[in-house]
Structures are given as C-alpha cells and as structure tokens.
Design goal:
Layout lengths: L6 E3 L14 E5 L5 H7 L9 E4 L6 H10 L4 E4 L7 H4 L5 E6 L10 H7 L3 E9 L6 H9 L3 E4 H4 L7 H4 L4 E5 L21 H12 L6 E5 L10 H19 L8 H4 L3 E5 L8 E5 L6 E7 L4 E7 L1 H8 L5 H10 L3
Parallel strand pairs: 1-3, 2-3, 2-4, 4-9, 5-6, 5-8, 6-7, 8-9
Antiparallel strand pairs: 10-11, 11-12, 12-13
Helix pairs in contact: 1-9, 8-9
Amino acid sequence: MKNKGFLEVIPAAAISEACQGAAAIIINTTGDPSIVNSLSDLFPQSGYKVYYVEPGINQLRETIALCSRLNIRCIVLCGEELPDIKSIAPEKSYSAALISAGSNEDKSNILTYLLEDGLVSDFSHIAYQSYKYDPLLLQKTKERCFEDLRLGAIRGDISRIEPYLRSVNYLFLDMRSVRYSDFPESLTKSPNGLYAEEICQLGRYIGMDQNLKTAYIYGYPSKSKPKSASAQLTAEILWHMCEAISSNVNEDPGVPEIEKLLLRKIVSMGQEGQDLDFYTSSSTGRWWMKIPEVKNNNNQYVACSYSDYLTACSGEIPMRWLFFFQKINHS
C-alpha cells in the first residue's frame, strides 16, 4: 500500500500559504508523467509532504517566484536542456553549483554564464570530466577563485562533495553526468560518469544544503518510456533530496548558541605553525574549519570534510584551508 501522505499532485494555481511547511515543491516541465508515477512507488522514511505541479515552461518563472515568497524550496525538472538561463537567473548576488560532465552536450552554456555573471559570489563545478571542456574555460574558474572537483577526485570518497554544496543557493544538475550504463536513455551515451548510487548520494547532499532555494535537474530525455530506468533513477534522486530536506537542521558555527553544541577540535601544526580549529556536529556529521580574516581580526567558518581534518592531523595544511585563506585574505 502506498503512503498517501508523501506526494500530493496539485495545480500550479493552488500553490499558496497552505503549502508552507512542505519539504519541497517539485515542478515538472518535461511533460513526462512517468517520473511522478515512479516517485509515487517510493516510501518516505519520515512524515513530510511534497507537492508536485506541472505548470508548463511559460509559467516556470512565476511559479518559482511564488515558491520563493512562500519560502518553499523548489526542485525543477527540465527536459534535455535548461530554459534560457537569463530567464531564471537571480537578479541579486547568489551562490551556485553545477554538476555536469562537460560542455559538449550543454547547449545552454550554463558554465560560461555562471563564470561570467558578476552576481555569482561563490561557485562550485563538480564531477566534470576534464577532456570534455576547453582548458581556457576551466581556467576562468581559477581566475575567479571558484572551486572545482573533477570526477576522478571524488571516486572512492564521494563525501568530499558535501562541503561544496552546503551553502549553495542555486543548484544545476545535468543528468548526462551519469554514465550510460546507469542512465541508458541518455542521448550522450557516455561510457564514463557518475554511478547511480553516487548521483543518489549527491541528491542527499543537495537536500542537506542549508541555503538551497532552487535546484534544476536537466538533461532528461524528451521521450522516456513508462517505468524506464531513467525515470526510476530520477525519482530516486528526488526521493533522496526530499528525505534530506525534511530532516535537515540549520547548523552555523558562527552563531554562538549553535557553536556551543558543536565539538571543537584543535590541531597543532608544530612549533612554527598556527593551530587549526575544526568543528563537527555529532548529529549530522558535518565538519567546518575556522579561517582567520587577518585584516579585520575576525574569523570565518568554512564547510569542510572529515578528510580535511585527517589531513591536518597528519601534519599537512588541507588544500581547502589554503584555498579559502588566500581567497578571504586576498588583497
């Protein structure tokens, strides 16, 4: 028997204050009903509500704006390509992350747009395959002091991705970043890419994002068969996102009341090195590191992973610590 309280299909016009408190609103612009059918077959592990609407591409911006006013997270299912990025991009400063294998398949040129948009304050480029990008385009990521994490760097330890997604406002997930054997209806038929288990784990990390406003999922085949592997995998990604959103807690070590609840770990870097401060949450397993802001005699707390802490314990300064120290104290 299906759990009737998990997913509720409503018309876009029914989105109102009554929807507040829902884990998320899934906005499907693909016209493919097989996704919601596959999602309805899955069982929630806790009591939460998810609304599902099909507003059509012409109503997308208005629907997202309404959800934003109601402070409800949106998960937007797009077709093979994103809508015109200029029509959905925020008009004020924002942070973003892109999960994409490469630019050859992406006609929307989302990476180019995000690298050139002056409103982007922070950006992470994740799970890309170097040989699918022009090196000059990748170089722009470093020029703007943005982060990247290629596919090979996460294989074997996908938990490294979580800190890159923890404070993102807008998330862009290209389903073509999944390898062909796990996403057989993909038009790219790429032999390499994320595994199905990895993309579902990524869905969980996206849902754990403390500042997420809207997540866009695209690269979905326009013609998908009912109960296809592609529809089922997309539904499972959505399930992991919604489960994480429903159980997410706000943790910010910069807030004194919250910092008291975290476990502080101080790592000595030797007689001539400074101590590195790490914080971890016993409830979620998240990690942070304290980065000194030299000019203002202040500190910033940056998301990190357990492996960063272990690197410090081995006597080496984590590359992520160095990256943010240079970024924060850039003259």
